[in-house]
Design a protein that fits this description.
The protein has seven helices and five strands. It is of the alpha+beta class. It folds into two domains: 79 residues, no CATH class; 91 residues, GMP Synthetase, Chain A, domain 3. It is globular, with a radius of gyration of 16 Å. The model has no long low-confidence stretch (mean pLDDT 93).
Amino acid sequence: MGTAERTTTAGHELLLQLAGRVPDELLWRMRNWLAGGDSNALSATLPRTLLRHRIGITDDERALLAAVVVPGSPSRRLVDAVLPGSAGPPPAFGPGAADLAAWSAMSVVSSADGGELLIAARDDGARLLLVRGAERPVELTATLQRLLRVHGEHVPRVEVWVDDDPPTAYHRAACAAAVSLWSRSPVPTG
């Protein structure tokens, strides 16, 4: 695995860990930069965002942040300045409602080797698309974000990960409340 690929993998993992803590308006843009290979924008913005919003991170998240920040960049010194902390409790979630955008996302996920597409709604009314078991999570996240933007969603909220198991408490809570829109393996009914 090359340096760029390691940075992308670390960046995706870190942004998954920070879901629900970093403002959605910034999170989707950072994911878009990551998918576009713009490590400089992500490197410059992420440490400053964590500091500005007083978002604490764990030691594991700090290691991922250090892997994401470009060596020698001015942001490198900010990594150690980010507060220590943890995720805290996730928000409440309920089932999300499917619409044309969600059905379009289903078409993308089914052709992109995703394992399952779910839809949830946070207690603040924000819709969240979740894809578990995806083979190329960075690219799929960016594609789904663009699709939701085309359908008029100003702030697309998309969470995509490789394994079937949700990576954080935020994702576990969302999956527990979500409605499955599509699954590669049949979902039992009844």
